[in-house]
Amino acid sequence: MDAILIILGVLLGLVVGGGAVFAVLRGNLRAKAAEADTRVVEAVRDVEKRLAAELAEAQANARGAEEKARNLDRDLKGAKAESQKREEKLVKREETVERKAETLTARETEVVRREKSVAQKEESIESNAKETERLVIEARATLERLAGMSPEEARRHMTEKLLEEVKITAARQIKMIEDEAKEEAEKRAKRIVGIAIGRYAGEYTNERTVSVVTLPSEEMKGRIIGREGRNIRAFEAATGIDVIIDDSPDTVTLSGFNPVRREIARLSLEMLVKDGRIHPARIEEIVEKSTKDVEQKIKEAGEDALFQLGLGAMHPELVKLLGRMKFRTSYGQNVLAHSVECGFLSGLMAAELGLPVKEARRAGLLHDLGKAIDQEIEGPHALTGANVARKFGESAEVVHAIAAHHEEEKPMTLLAQIVIASDAISGARPGARRESLENYVKRLEDLEGIANGFPGVERTFAIQAGREVRVLVSHEKVSDEGATVLARDIARKIEEKLAYPGQIRICVIRETRAIEYAK
């Protein structure tokens, strides 16, 4: 019995111990499982973090690669554009070289032609010398046959005959040389002028001597006049412009020959009308403000002219004078617009002739500079403008071109001739300038009167608005050689007596008719 109990006790102890051990083992296993789960979670988190970091790095690398690709694409496009520009420059250089080669070839051909012409002229001179010698021999023989002629009479007779022969020969030579020179010069001049005109087309700008200001109502006219006219008198005294108030509805006219003052008056009146406070003190204040505004416009206009022509720095005083020309007119043509146009035309013609383009543009722009101050300084505007340009540092070539553009100074350079041509083109094209009917008719009458004053002239017709004069002469009184001399003499007298824009063509017509009747 005791043994059984002991056995049972042992078994019970084993069961209890085993349970305890099992509980301990199960707790350990659960702890280890929990620890394993924690490690797995941490491992998963580490993997996720590592993957996220690698993904972010991969995305950053991808963005960097994409940015590099974009940069490479931009660089490639820039390189292509630069390459294209270089190709275009090379093409232009090749074209320039080809043009220069063509010009050199043409010049070589012209030199050869002139050498042939000189040789022919030398042969002609030699032939004339032989002919003169033959005539001398004949004259001597004739004198020998004239027994009753004294030596003095014989010498005078021979001299007169030789002079007549020499005059006829010289007139023929002059006509031949002039015809050749005119033909060649006219072809080249027409080509250069045609290119210049074709590459530049400016706007027609005409100005008037009055400005019209629109009013909000008729009542405003009374306020402008003021009590006993004090406002209008104060306004005219401050601006120097006449104010015309008539029956025109809701308008006031400003009249004056000084365009700068007229612009100041227009701005001032518009500001006064808008403000509504019109009295002498306010008028003086507004006029002063408008004067500053116009001075700023003048400066901007001068700078804009330089910008349009692509010119560099210029003395500030010259810029102001250029701006003042915006408010100056000549035959109704705006002087600043005309000067800018002359600058473009001069530059284009200089490019065709191989001269400095910017210097030609500068001379063309400044050629009428004297018109900005011709109301303040006596003398021709060309010489006045040249003196001002010289004072403010312009080059001697530009100063000479300004002074010579109306030939107050004799043109001595090709640049001066270019400015003369561009001035004539800009001023003579249709619509560029206005003139009264009386002046137009008077000019035609003067042209015809000058030509009719020469001996041998039967009738004269001024046509094409005075651009051409056709002179009909008597075939009995004027020879073919004499017609050449007559045309030159008429042109010289017109240059001395008349002032005109552009050039005038003199055409002398000599006609011989043989009439017979069949009966």
Summarize, please:
The protein has 14 helices and eight strands. It has 519 residues and is mainly α.
Please tell me about this protein's structure.
- With 519 residues, this protein is mainly alpha-helical.
- Among the domains are: 210-293, K Homology domain, type 1 (Ribosomal Protein S8, Chain: A, domain 1), CATH 3.30.1370.10; 316-428, Hypothetical protein af1432, CATH 1.10.3210.10; 437-519, Cation efflux protein, cytoplasmic domain (Alpha-Beta Plaits).
- The protein has 14 helices and 8 strands.
- It has helices spanning 2-145, 151-199, 219-225, 230-239, 259-275, 280-309, 316-324, 335-353, 357-366, 381-391, 396-404, 414-428, 437-452, 480-497, and strands at residues 210-214, 242-244, 251-255, 329-330, 333-334, 457-463, 468-473, 505-510.
- The chain has a 3-stranded antiparallel β-sheet with strand order 1-3-2, covered by helices on one side.
- The longest helix is centred in the N-terminal third of the chain and has 144 residues, at 2-145.
What's the SSE blueprint?
Layout: H1 2-145, H2 151-199, E1 210-214, H3 219-225, H4 230-239, E2 242-244, E3 251-255, H5 259-275, H6 280-309, H7 316-324, E4 329-330, E5 333-334, H8 335-353, H9 357-366, H10 381-391, H11 396-404, H12 414-428, H13 437-452, E6 457-463, E7 468-473, H14 480-497, E8 505-510
Parallel strand pairs: 7-8
Antiparallel strand pairs: 1-3, 2-3, 4-5, 6-7
Task: Count the E strands.
Answer: 8
- Briefly note the CATH topology name of the domain at 316-428: Hypothetical protein af1432
Number of helices: 14
**What's the CATH C level of the domain at 316-428?**
Mainly Alpha
Q: SSE order in H/E notation?
A: HHEHHEEHHHEEHHHHHHEEHE
What would you report as the Rg, rounded to the nearest angstrom?
48 Å
Averaged pLDDT, please?
78
